[in-house]
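Hi R.,

As promised on Friday, here is the backbone we talked about, encoded as structure tokens. Could you run it through your design pipeline when you get a chance and send me back a sequence?
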């Protein structure tokens, strides 16, 4: 499900791990307005509206802006918060930044490769980590696992 995001995006790659340093003026030309608002201006989807909120397909989640590997579906859990939630991120997937906006102390989660805003992380998640990565669906690209033959 990466129909709009990767088209005309020369920076999108699921294999290239090179850190990107692309100015927002350039991203604005490449990304859809909705993705730009979330990824580069930290807008938050309305709860319950994202395409991956109540989605339980098996596969991998990548950054919708740059293709960096962020999460596996087996770290996704059925959160009632209204956004797709994961209990752990892939190694080298994300970085963290203190966020004091809106009168709250939160930890923002950004893509490690392109510094795009993904969501926030909280410490009220399920075992084994107790962590809840609360993500915006639009910032994610899901790629399903290859179908395996039933034996
Ligand atoms: Fe990224």
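Update: got your reply. Pasting your designed sequence below so it's all in one thread:
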């Amino acid at each position: 499900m990466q129909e709009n995001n990767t088209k005309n995006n020369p920076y999108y790659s699921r294999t290239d791990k090179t850190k990107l340093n692309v100015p927002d003026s350039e991203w604005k030309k490449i990304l859809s307005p909705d993705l730009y608002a979330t990824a580069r201006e930290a807008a938050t989807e309305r709860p319950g509206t994202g395409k991956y909120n109540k989605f339980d397909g098996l596969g991998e989640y990548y950054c919708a802006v740059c293709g960096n590997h962020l999460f596996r579906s087996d770290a996704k859990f059925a959160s009632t918060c209204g956004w797709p939630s994961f209990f752990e991120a892939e190694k080298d997937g994300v970085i963290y930044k203190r966020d004091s906006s809106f009168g709250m102390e939160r930890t923002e989660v950004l893509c490690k490769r392109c510094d795009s805003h993904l969501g926030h992380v909280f410490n009220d998640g399920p075992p084994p980590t107790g962590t809840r990565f609360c993500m915006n669906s639009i910032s994610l690209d899901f790629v399903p696992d290859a179908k395996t033959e039933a034996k």
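One thing I noticed while checking it: The two ends are 28 Å apart (CA to CA).

Thanks again,
M.
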